[in-house]
Amino acid sequence: xQLQTSGGGLVQTGGSLRLSCASSGGAFxxxxxxxxxxxxxxxxxxxxxxxxxxxxxYGDSVKGRFTISRDNxxxxxYLQMNSLKPEDTxxxxxxxxxxxxxxxxxxxxxxxxxxxxxxxSS
Length: 122
Known about the structure:
By secondary structure, the chain is mainly β. Helix content is 0%, strand content 48%. The protein has strands at residues 2-6, 9-12, 17-24, 33-38, 45-50, 56-58, 66-71, 76-81, 90-96, 111-112, 116-121. It is globular and about 40 Å long. The mean pLDDT is 95.
């Protein structure tokens, strides 16, 4: 499985960005997908997960502002980010699990994309 992440960039506080992650490989629809982020000098942090059953889970810091979605026909997962804040600045990674359920630990995810940089200016 290979994951290709795109959509990062520079945005002002309060702005929006949409990240995309395209997956190659089998059984996409049966897998849970997640987004993580790593800010400079910090550990990687879980952001959101969408299960194979389309249930969605969010970290407290992004709840109400970010929306995760998937398009199984395109083998893609998306992260719509609204009301962005400077503290959202990070490299964002998508990841895929072998199973379809919810997980927030990095070790629960088997494959990772290369990451895309999101910078929010104040």
